[in-house]
């Protein structure tokens, strides 16, 4: 019968049935205008889809009951987990269905967790096999702070840390550390998942492996992650952060590839991070993406960009601590020796590890203060094979971005190792 109702009536009926048939959810299932408004948009500000209701779970059973209920009615409704809602095309929306707000589980102790309990995190240290059991609705910035209290940190990051563990593990979680450690989905030992049947299942590469590999990078379509066991390593203290500028794309790509060829996880002479970006005529060289060119160099860099149209920036980082502080400069010098960046256009900064990892936050704050954060964000992510990267430069970067003077958004360009 359900499908004969006009849409708004159907929404009311679903909500009415849900809130009565699942009494334990009485207080956590909401359809007030504010809850619906928040769950019907995302960082992309391109799509808007109203759910019938939003579930603010207080336990994993709430999620399981919701899914089982939907499966047992004649017209199941759509259900979407929502982390921090930083998708760009409505991926965490559930038109006419129910959005599950995973961040409400932030203070919930993940079940099946072992080890020392640290606030809502469970952190365990076993024979040099370090890990943290983390709730799917936790923000990576909170994971960082909690693990650092133990001198440990995850090895795989995104550029921006105000994203949830469940949200990035449903995609990939890629940043400048991926050439060496792989994306975040390659740094998970185990997960607890509520499946599409509403069952609570623990999975790993050895146990329920289809579910494990389906959920990782599964775009939220194979189950809801309630706990992930994340790989940790001893945390460094500080970071040598270097930017180099190029006007020749082939020299740039060659240097990027050379640098990521040293990539063993335990290889102490490898870089810890490598990314690249474009400088095009965007006003100040210090655009929103945490640039650190000294003010005295602005006019030199602007002239370079004006002369060549596009300048390629190569950004690398080498972490260090008290044991390596006397050797880090030498190691970095050896790594960068023989690179073909433009003479005189190399810039270095020495920052605390947390400042480096959280570098995009200051950009967000700046855009928030200018009212430019909650605006449409059409984003495109592409993997381009090495064999076509020069064509991509000629056809897209020079042929489209430069020719059409598309200067309002950042363009990131960095190499990955397929084996990772
Ligand atoms: C400023 C900014 C910078 C970014 N930088 C990077 C970057 O450097 N690298 C990178 O890889 N990505 C980056 N992203 C993209 C980001 O990783 C994804 O958009 C991610 O999905 C956002 O996480 P979220 O918690 O906001 O997820 P949401 O947008 O809330 O959800 C994303 C998807 O995951 C699903 N989902 C959410 N939680 C769970 C869960 N617990 N279980 C199962 N499925 C779930 C949702 O249903 C949806 O399909 C960036 C995004 C922004 C806005």
TrEMBL record:
EC numbers: 1.5.99.12
Cofactor requirements of the protein: FAD
Domain of life: Eukaryota
Catalytic reaction equation(s): N(6)-dimethylallyladenine + A + H2O = 3-methyl-2-butenal + adenine + AH2
GO molecular function, one term: cytokinin dehydrogenase activity
Domain FAD-binding PCMH-type: 47-235
InterPro entries linked: Cytok_DH_C_sf, Cytokinin_DH_FAD/cytokin-bd, FAD-bd_PCMH, FAD-bd_PCMH-like_sf, FAD-bd_PCMH_sub1, FAD-bd_PCMH_sub2, FAD-linked_Oxase-like_C, FAD-linked_Oxidoreductases_BP
Alphabetically ordered keywords of this record: FAD, Flavoprotein, Oxidoreductase, Signal
Enzyme class: oxidoreductase
A GO biological-process term: cytokinin metabolic process
PROSITE patterns: FAD_PCMH, OX2_COVAL_FAD
Record-stated family: Belongs to the oxygen-dependent FAD-linked oxidoreductase family.
Name this polypeptide is given: cytokinin dehydrogenase
Organism: Prunus yedoensis var. nudiflora
